[in-house]
Specification:
- The protein is α+β, with helices and mostly antiparallel strands.
- The chain has one domain: Pantoate--beta-alanine Ligase, Chain: A,domain 2.
- It contains 1 helix and 4 strands.
- A hairpin with a 7-residue loop joins strand 3 and strand 4.
- It starts with 11 loop residues before the first helix and ends with a strand.
- The relative contact order is 0.14.
Length: 133
């Protein structure tokens, strides 16, 4: 039985082409894995910042009183910074100069973890503060 020399194995060119295809596929897969890990890290930091912002907003609301106006800021740990702002708020249908039994206050809390604008979570709410009689 005679074997054809061509049927004994792969040629060097075929091996090189297969290796090139494998290399390109692996580089694409590694890039996808890297981007996925980066997105997971960003989502994790965003989720932590959101939880910290909710906690800080609750803290500001607990300590809210008639003198609570202005801005405050600080650090939550080495990675996260917070800012809060309390200011008077006017509803669209409020009449200027009229006295109301409550004062609406706009409370904003932001937590950031980097220098880019996308690395920030901001929450806001309006709280009605009863005026002293």
């Amino acid at each position: 039985m005679r074997h054809n020399a061509r049927s004994r194995g792969f040629t060097l060119l075929e091996v090189l082409v297969a290796f090139l295809v494998l290399s390109l596929s692996m580089s694409v897969l590694m890039r996808i894995v890297s981007q996925s890990l980066n997105a997971m890290g960003t989502a994790d930091r965003h989720q932590v910042a959101l939880q910290l912002a909710e906690s800080k907003l609750a803290e500001v609301l607990v300590h809210l009183d008639g003198n609570s106006r202005g801005k405050n800021q600080g650090r939550l740990d080495r990675d996260y910074r917070w800012e809060s702002e309390v200011e008077p708020y006017e509803f669209d249908n409020q009449k200027p100069g009229e006295r109301y039994s409550v004062t609406p206050l706009l409370i904003r809390v932001s937590v950031s973890w980097g220098s880019r604008p996308a690395e920030r979570v901001s929450l806001s709410t309006i709280r009605l503060l009863r005026e002293a009689p």
